[in-house]
Amino acid sequence: MTEKQWKKNDETEILIEDMGKDGEGIGHADGYTLFVKGALPGERVRVRLMKVKKRMGFARLMEVITPSSQRVTPVCPVAGPCGGCTLQHLSYEAQLEVKENTVRNCLQRIGGVDLEKVEWLPIQGMNGENESPWHYRNKAQFPVRMGKDGKAEAGFFASGSHRLIPVESCQIQHPVINEVLAVVMDFLREKGIEGYDEEHHSGLVRHIFIRRGYFTGQVMVCLVLMKETLPEEAVLLERLKKVEGFTSLYISVNSRRTNVILGEDVRLRFGKAYIEDEIGGVRYQISPKSFYQVNPVQTQKLYARALDFAGLQGHETVWDLYCGIGTISLFLAKAVPQGKVVGVEIVPEAVENARENAKLNGFENVSFRCGAAEDVAPGLLERYGADVVVVDPPRKGCDGSLLETMVSMAPEKIVYVSCDPATLARDVKRLGEMGYELKRCQVTDMFPQGGHCETVCLLSKLHEAKRRQATYEEIKKYVAEYNDGMKVSDLYIAQVKRKCGIELAENFNIPRSEGAKQPQCPKEKEEAIIGALKAFRMI
Fold this sequence. Notes:
Elements: E1 11-19, E2 25-29, E3 32-36, E4 44-52, E5 56-66, H1 79-82, H2 92-109, E6 119-124, E7 139-146, E8 152-157, E9 164-166, H3 175-191, E10 205-212, E11 219-225, H4 233-240, E12 246-253, E13 265-271, E14 275-279, E15 282-286, H5 296-310, E16 317-321, H6 327-335, E17 340-345, H7 348-361, E18 366-370, H8 373-384, E19 388-391, H9 400-408, E20 413-418, H10 421-433, E21 436-444, E22 454-461, H11 472-482, H12 490-499, H13 523-535
Parallel strand pairs: 3-5, 6-21, 11-12, 16-17, 16-19, 17-18, 19-20
Antiparallel strand pairs: 1-2, 1-4, 2-3, 4-5, 7-8, 7-10, 8-9, 10-11, 12-13, 14-15, 20-22, 21-22
């Protein structure tokens, strides 16, 4: 039977069988995979194809014919078009189940993990006493544009676009953040101040950026402008002073055509240069450019679990890679009063923040180094050693050279904090091939109503590392995955293996005639192949 050739605007009925990592429903029409935003597993739906690719398509939900028992009415009136909360239509209990299953499936399918051998702790949700999966965020970035009435309006961009969905408040932001938004927008409209026009690169106010310390109540407001001056700034400042906890006002000038929110020029116009917050009794100073987790209640649970998995006795040397402003580092330093914590971060401003935070808390057993971990760690290992390595990478996970560095440090334990289940699974697999076995795992719901979550994994060192002969195809795949798609030939792999003393099959890639020339492996590709051989424990 010939497969049906689907095209844009075709409509069909499908059964939703699964859910993707961003909360989209997944179903099949005559074997063709369709992703449907807003559809839930178990639902029969009518959809219209909007984007057709060779192996999969994206469809718009037209009608829910048979709804799921877990479907609920979204609290937010613009939950669908906004695109920020992809799971508001799913009950919170079901959200937790979906997220936990997503991590488990990735570890099994991508990581090749036998979950029967892993201690799996139940997901940490926001369903405990005095907790709520609403109004939990401590940071908001509202783009400002011009409305049809000729006045400024703020909101969020529709999913995958720069089309503004106007909002007056957000159901996952803290109420004080919504209050600040109302104060600023009333001022802009009253004074006739223009929002940004992206098409013509004109107007004045691009973004309203607000942060609030969850445990301190301190509030920072940063207005991102096209020019240095905000008309009648003093009037706005007096109104903001009436907001409980208002601490700082910044102006950031960003006149470039860019999607980056803050400009290079960030100027304090009132109050302190930072706000403060605390996690587990450790206090942190937060500036406009600081990275700080958006859900402090869940962050405390996440870091407590990472600390639990590390199993520290008080005297160990712990490395915190991708340490940011030192949030995890200082949590660890508190647990090793007779030990040492070394934090490594590539962003200079974050390293300075981390050092200030260490001083603020009186910690003398922690130091911070600026640079890539794979460059910094080798030079300090002889001095410090490594009992435990904690790594909290961005969504792309760890690159191959960092994984090799972590293994070369030979810690007894690696605690991996991940914000992306797929790259976590990939890296767990690589670490397994290099001698570290996944022992314990727990998911934390950092982003209720959205599709993302955080996972903490404990990997322990196997004293007899797994060694095997990787195939040429496996080596090629590794090189491409960790070197931006780099391609290497069998010949180059064979040359590098021979250089490393790895025995080759007889007559493998020997020139056809005496004196015949062969292309030699370039240095860049040789280093990438050596990285793969190390990853597979072949050298």
